[in-house]
Amino acid sequence: FDQENHRSFVNANTFKSYMRCFDRSDANTSATKAEELLKKMHEKQTFDSIELPQPNVGTFNAVMEWWSLVEGQEGQKGVNDVYSLLEATSMSADNECPVRP
To answer: Minimal CA–CA distance to 90: which of 67, 57, 62?
Structure first.
């Protein structure tokens, strides 16, 4: 895999779409997996040897959508946690993530 020649299709929107393909019959597991991927993107880690792009607003929204499908306080906590990360990221002075409007 030549990462340099494939950067154009590996962006935050690609991973947002990937997250939306998770199994809807198990929202809790899917929300957890989506949040883990979001955090890896935020921390500039790799995924299958691909350097992850920085998350954008759509990526954060996709994860919050998953948590909104989880019933009860666990789902509410998940949404709140992701929103807090989005808020902290957007207010960061050294912010490299494209999350500001």
So the answer is: 57
Tens-digit pLDDT profile for residues 36-75: 999 999 998 987 788 888 899 999 999 999 999 999 999 9
Q: Is the pTM of this model over 0.90?
A: no
As a whole number of angstroms, the distance between CA 41 and CA 74 comes to 23
For 65, how many CA atoms within 13 A lie in the half-sphere containing its CB? 13
**47 φ/ψ sector (left φ>0, alpha ψ -120 to 50, else beta):** beta
CA separation for the pair 72, 15 (Å, rounded): 27
What single-letter amino acid sits at 76?
Q
CA–CA gap between residue 24 and residue 81 (Å, rounded): 21
Determine the distance from the C-alpha atom of residue 16 to the mean position of all C-alpha atoms in its chain, rounded to a whole number.
Answer: 7
- Mark residue 44 as left, alpha or beta (left: phi above 0; alpha: psi -120 to 50; beta: remaining): left
